[in-house]
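Archive record
______________

***
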Amino acid sequence: MKHAGVIGAGGWGTALSMLLARNGYRVDLWAREEEVAREISTSRTNATFLPGVTIHEGVLPTTDLGEVVNRNVLLFMPVPSQHMRGVVRAARPYLAREHVIIHAGKGIEEGSLLRLSQAIMEELPPELHDNVGVISGPSHAEEVAREVPTAIVAASVDERPAKLAQEALMCPTMRVYTSHDVIGVELGGALKNVIALATGIADGLGFGDNTRAALMTRGLAEMARLGIALGANPLTFAGLSGMGDLVVTCMSMHSRNRRAGIEIGRGRKVEEVLGSTRMVVEGVPTTRAAVALARRAGVDMPVASKLHDVLFSGLDPMQAVTDLMTRDPQAETASMFGTNMRI
């Protein structure tokens, strides 16, 4: 029997575990919370993070991180971005040269402003750096768990981690493409949450499809501009981890970032919205990190910057819309990627 470990029993970790188990893997699923592991073991449910589904018998929950790492060479890490470094640090004593780590986080580490693979590598010995990859794309856990057809991308600098992820996850309901553009794939997955928050706020203010489409399109331009400045392939942002993930996160009520934005647009305080759920709203810390990263790179991100002011400086959301709509006129193509961009 094939073996894999999944570190993180949130919604996405649980859905990934179910997918792997259906593909014939024995899956060790690490849960931080004892009550989550106990519920999965006894009831085959995870009501807190993925309600309404029955978890495959091939998923074996545990709270022993060392056991999961020791028993599995292939490790998936669907861990919230601001906790990723700490989990990798805790796993490091058990890691060996053969381990392959595929993270599934979608954020930028606050403070360091590192992409998640960079933060992971800082916690690993150099001989493991080529064993790190990422999966990303339009993949709501609720739908993957119910076997809704889905497509994602697996990226790694060395092709082996991406190929292993592709081999493990591919099935009639999950199509996995590979990429070498780790920078673009990680930034696409992180920055789309920022734009989803902004579109959610617009929805909460009562605007319509025109506004949502404008924010998504101009948001994609901001994602690509920052990505290009940091070394990403611009075409990655037209793919699954860019436009694909942006569309699903900005349009679906499965998106916790969109839902949070709607509540903020309706007048609720950011702290109140975040405190009302155990789910992580990745777009909030990522907005702070993205604006700081753009400032350091000299990249203009007006949507993200205005969202930052709404979230952290008390700017009225309606005023933020007015500020964006009354910016100086400019040509679309030049403002999409910058006049020196070449594909």
Observations:
- The two ends are 45 Å apart (CA to CA).
- Residues 182-204 form the longest helix (23 residues).
- Residues 339-343 have pLDDT under 50 and may be disordered.
- The chain has two domains: 2-180, 183-337.
